Amino acid sequence: MLVTPQLSLSAIRQPAFLYGPDGRITAANDLAEVLAGRSLAGRSIAAVVGIFDVRSPDGTPLMAADLPTARALTGEEAVDVPLAVTVADGRTLHVLVTAAPIRNGGEVVGAFSIWQDMSVRERMRAESETAAEELRAQQAELREQGDELHRAYADLDRQRQLLDAIVRTVPSRISLWAADGHCLWANDTMMALVGRARDDLIGRSWQEIGMDPRVVAPVMEAVGVVVATGVPRRNELEYPSADGPRWLEYEIAPFRNPGGTVTAALVVSRDITDRMKVDETLRRRLEELETLTETVPVAIWVSQDSACGEITGNRMANELYEVREGENVSAGSPPSKSIPPRRFFAGGRELSAEELPMQVAAAHGVEVRDAEIEVLLPSGRRIFMLGSASPLREASGAVRGCLGAFLDITERKRTEEALRESEERLRLAQETAHVSVWDRDVRTGRLTNTPELLRLYGFDEDLIDTYDGWREHVHPDDIGWVEAEREAALARSESFDLEYRILRPSGEVRWLSSIGRGYRDASGEIGRVLGVAIDITERKTAELALARSAADLQRSNEELQRFAYVASHDLQEPLRSIVSFSQLLERRYKGKLDADADEFIGFIVEGGNRMQRLIMDLLRVSRIETTAKPLKPTDAGAVVAGAIRLLDSPLREAGATLEIDDLPVVRADAAQLEQVFVNLIGNAIKYRRPDVPLEVRISARRERGGWELAVQDNGIGIEEEYFDRIFQMFQRLHTYDEFSGTGIGLAVVKKIVERHGGTIRVESTPGEGSTFFFTLPAA
Q1: How far, in Å, CA of 216 to CA of 202, rounded?
Q2: How far apart are CA 55 and CA 34, in angstroms?
Q3: 24-33 long-range contacts, Cβ below 8 Å, gap at least 24?
Q4: 610 falls in which pLDDT band (50, 70, 90)?
Q5: Integer distance in angstroms from the first to the last C-alpha of the chain?
Q6: Cβ neighbours around 622 below 10 Å, total
Q7: Triad 29, 33, 37: Cα angle to 5°
């Protein structure tokens, strides 16, 4: 039976190619031609590049000279070269290409290349080893057919030599082992690893060869299992070395004799330490990236499709959007019937889904930076975000999705809004209150101020921007003492509060209050003075007017008091004469003249007596100020005791009962306070009910800043409409026939209480009694 190269390559279960010295394919197995979708015999390396669109993994196109096969034809081995190819059905495969030169007596007579699909690497390796075993079985069968295959022997020998050359020179370690651990065959790579020639290797056990038991013992155990079961095995093994841990990948396939019995196991192994290190580094980087993504205080969203139809976020993003982990938050996803959609705003208008940063980045393949978005969440809460979005791309450059990273700036926006509102309120307050803020740089003389300062000085433009410019508008009579007092305060590190006049361009004089303080720099010198200026013209005008009115009032009061005192004294003498002679007429001539004369004389006497009492009351009113003494701590209880002693006789006549509570020490003029109690208790005696025993209670209670004292009686009471009238001068509620008096007593009480800084009021019920309350400062 004639064995062709195609028949030999078909035993390899990976795409395999055999090239002649001219760089054209002399044979390719069925897997290679299925991928190509055509026959590959006679195709050049350049044609293979075109058929499979061969390129580097990152998409960079390659030339024919860049392929591992071209390098093998020059005598160089190319092992595990990663390439990307496009097969007949349109799929893109990432393969590891191994190419080795085929030599005949040292001359390169061709090249052998295998493509290993990385995604199905394990399966292909197992199948490859099985194929190798089957190939060896075919060789054994062919040898047994010696005579029948004599005509094809030369061709078979060439094929055997070719296959042997391939197996011997591939970079993988290939060896055939019996179940008892003896080596039956090994390729050149395996012999180089153990440092023995083939004759010194074959027929020896792995222990005799001196192989590392930490590596080989597990493999030999697996060899025994494969020989016993006929089931291929694959595994990865970590073992220690002088350079640190290393990794070995091995595949074991059963080797059968022509009768189908498993007699040995074919072991194919390779060192995958570098790949494992890369995988471990990649795994750690992925873990670090995942940890960083979940812990960074940035909302990160990712979409794996260019339409951004599905977008998911990290923990921060889920918390910001108030969603569950893994929930799709794409604005283009179908809205829920029960939950309102999120709404997005920017630049004062609502955005559509297509205008959002991630959608724009994915649709146009551009990066969107510093996008500020306002989001209205379904819960009704508003948030503000600032961030960027970038497209994710395939190796070919096509957009495959998008990544968005945003900061939650809600609190910052609220703070900015609050600051704007605060500044606006401050501006309105400054304008309304005519208050300006100024800042002076002592070194440069530069003066910075708010617009209100210009209005205070009567300017439409910023013409006061230096200290000297300010000085020019201060009233010349004030500038000297203003600067002196301010500099003295700055030297003492104290604030200053100055009131001075300014001159407006129109010639108008205005009053300003300037309050400020200095700030020292690192050298300890005053470098900056900051303060406010307030227009107090109306207040100063009112103060001056009030001062003039107070002075006028003081003069008027003094003149009135002098008049009252002088008048009372001047009126006393003629009045005493009138009363005295009227009383003398009454004693001598009463009953000697007619009844009318007696009545007229009685009128004169009574009128004179009333006039004397009125003058005495006027004199007491005038003495409230002229004889007043400074207020000092005074025992109110002792003062009340003195008043009761003065009223002892009328109190006894009235059969009065007195109830005196504990009274405080107050700040008062003791003589005037006694007059208050004498008048109030005296009124209780005068206006008592004739059929009810008089009761008087004096009490006190603490109130903020002082004391409120009360004098309560059970007399005839007062109608509410007269509560204010009774404290006015000469106001009486009864006739002289009903009750004597001039109507000055309560007016005197009110004047004394007000002199002490207090107030007086009355509460009364007609027929039940009255209570007079008045306040005094605490001692």
Answers
A1: 16
A2: 19
A3: 26/110, 32/115
A4: low
A5: 137
A6: 20
A7: 170
Distance, CA of 522 to CA of 166 (rounded, Å): 84
How many angstroms separate the CA atoms of 206 and 267, rounded? 13
Q: How many whole angstroms separate alpha carbon 249 and alpha carbon 239?
A: 11
On whether the pTM is more than 0.85, the answer is no
Find how far residue 181's CA is from the centre of its chain: 71
Report the distance separating Cα 533 and Cα 193, nearest Å: 94
Tell me what pLDDT residue 164 has.
Answer: 60
Give yes or no for a contact between 54 and 83, defined as CB atoms under 8 angstroms apart.
yes
Q: CB of 181 within 8 A of CB of 221?
A: no
Looking at the chain, how many residues does it have?
779
Q: Count the Cβ atoms, other than its own, within 10 Å of residue 367.
A: 12
| Separation CA 137–CA 145 (nearest Å) | 13
Instruction: Over range 619-646, report the average pLDDT.
Output: 80
Q: β-pairing, 695-703 with 657-660?
A: parallel
Cα–chain center distance at 647: 76
Backbone angles phi, psi at 409, to 5 degrees: -110, 25
Query: Would you state the structure tokens that stand for residue 224, as one six-digit string?
Result: 């025994």
CA distance 763 to 768: 11
State the amino acid at position 243 in one-letter form.
D
C-alpha torsion 21→27→32→37, nearest 10: 110
Kindly tell me if the per-residue pLDDT of 418 is higher than 60.
yes
Closest-CA residue to 431 (of 403, 461, 451, 407): 451
| Ranges assigned E (strand) in 652-768 | 657-660, 665-668, 695-703, 706-713, 760-765
Tokens 């293979």 appear where?
Answer: 48
Helix (H, G, I), strand (E, B) or coil at 115: strand
Contact between 767 and 688 under an 8 Å Cβ cutoff? The reply is no
Q: Quick check: 128 and 14 in contact, CB under 8 A?
A: yes
